[in-house]
Amino acid sequence: MHEFETFVYLDTQKTGSTFISYVLTECANEKIVAFEKHRPVGDDYHPEKFHFITVREPRDQYISLYSHGCSGAGGLSRRLRKKGHGDFYDSTWRGFRRWLKFILDLDQAKLLDDTYGREKAIHDLIGFQTYRFLELAMKNPYETIKACRTKDDLRAAYKENNIAQYVIRNETLREDFERLVTGELRHAMNVDKALGLIHESDKLNTSDRVDAFEDNPKIGRETREILREREWFLKELFDY
After folding, report:
1. pLDDT for 31-41, tens place per residue?
2. What is the number of domains present in the chain?
3. pLDDT in tens, 170-222
4. d(Cα 100, Cα 59) in Å, to the nearest integer?
5. CATH number at residue 95
6. At residue 71, what are phi and psi to the nearest 5 degrees?
């Protein structure tokens, strides 16, 4: 969460969040009220403030997460390595496919995140990337998602508890960010400076992707179907 006086950025992991927070820090005319990377708003939710969030196509997000972990960085990578699963991180497409199949296995949910893996009702219903998004996008996410038993329950819960008023897609990050800076955040930004950084700066905290030299990277039909089912909510909500 990156909170300013009149707006809050909900910084979903591996969605370009480091870059967006950098531009906000450099160009906002308001003081930073709070900044703790990827933390839900919790009791600090202020409905009078403008909230926006970032999202990414789940398969691409998993590739980025794995690639980041191959450098030894990231909480998930450290957790898996500590549990004896460091052999997944060999920086190959084959390694990614093995890792992804492992990550999507419901039996491994407790290894991914303490809150996500704690409640079976949560990881039975949604995938890890969906949980990371909803954890930031909703009021009282853990208790709210835990109470859901069906997809319709989750759809209704999101509609009632969503706090994000604008979404930046990683796939169209610069265009979406420009619309935000020249629109809802115009009052709080040095607009010219922000636009310069948005269009001229490189993204930050990027990793060498393991699919960079793959002519036709595929994850296999079975894994693809599991991924579609696990991350159904993100795919449905954002038409991925």
Report:
1. 999 999 999 99
2. 1
3. 999 999 999 999 999 999 999 999 999 999 877 655 668 898 888 888 999 99
4. 9
5. 3.40.50
6. -85, 0
